[in-house]
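This protein record is not my work; I was only asked to verify it. Would you go through it and say whether the fold makes sense for this chain? Here is the record exactly as it was handed to me.
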Amino acid sequence: MVNTVAVCTVGELFGGVERHVLELIDGLGTQGIRALLVLFLDGELAIQARRQGIEPVILPNRNRSFLTTSRQLARILEQHQIHIVHVHGYKATVFCMLARKWRPFAMVKTEHGMPEPMAGGPITTWRNQLYHLLDSIATRTTGPTVCYVTEDLRRYYRRAHFGLSTIVIPNGVGSLDRRQFSRPAELCEEWFNLLVVGRLDTVKGHHLAIKAMAVEGLSPDIHLHIVGLGPREQELRALAESLGVAHRVHLLGFRRNIYDYIAHCNALLIPSLHEGLPYTLLEAMALGAPIIASRVGGLAEVLQDGVTALLTPLQDVDSLALAIVRLYRDQEFCLRLGKEGRRLQQAKYSLEAMTKNYLTVYETLTD
């Protein structure tokens, strides 16, 4: 019988992984399971966790000694009598590998996406490669049950995780009611408001959305709103300026009230170069927002073109612009896409289903 688990991640940013962690802890609570949240940074995830009534344990982020922090983690797990740790990301995996030298416990690891390069120079590239190597070593050494959010990711990691126990568990979100969210002032009712949510990095395809805004034939009342922070912000602003669409492209930075934006946009764009199963997608589906997405990864796996979303070829700016125009001209079609997307989310990507699947994994580790 599982009573308590630890959920361990960095907590530096606030994106899909962090939303997954909060959703999972909430879902476990409804099943009577206490989750201890262990982070390496007192950042946005910690702030959001406290708002949810969860006080996280914060371990040192800058470590003079890996062993010192790992020993501290082992003592915390011993104190709370935790036998299962659910890790997200390389740092959590590495420290848990070391902590097991002092405190034995079973591990579950969720893979949310493919490795992504970090923006920066040679040193950043080298550090990125080192992180992936450490993650691979720690995963092979600890032998966790590995959970993938899509079948596409299981295929991608097939060789790297050969011999490990693996399973696909899609992300899930709780019920959301569009009527409870207020329209943000930036989403002018006289405009057709497009929304992109995510870290400002190349892989998320913001540059493609901006280029689509410059395609001839788009109505001047179509506006693009970009919510998120990241290393490409200045490049994106410069791109909008160079294409003459800066007055219709709005970079809004980080927003805690993201549901307000999703609930009141006319369409959510996900022009990513690759994706796992992003929470922005599931939240948009739950809120009935029409979606235009790249035909890649988990997006192509979950969505049906013309039924639950419009799917466009990878990096095809003209197709993206055509999809925008189609939604702009056909409000009835927009409503139908949103309705079918919401129906699909409730049927296959609910918080209840995700929680029960993880509970089954935890229980197999206590047998």
About this structure: The longest helix spans residues 122-142. The chain has a mean pLDDT of 94. The chain has two domains: 4-172+350-364, 178-348. The domain at 4-172+350-364 is CATH 3.40.50.2000 (Rossmann fold).
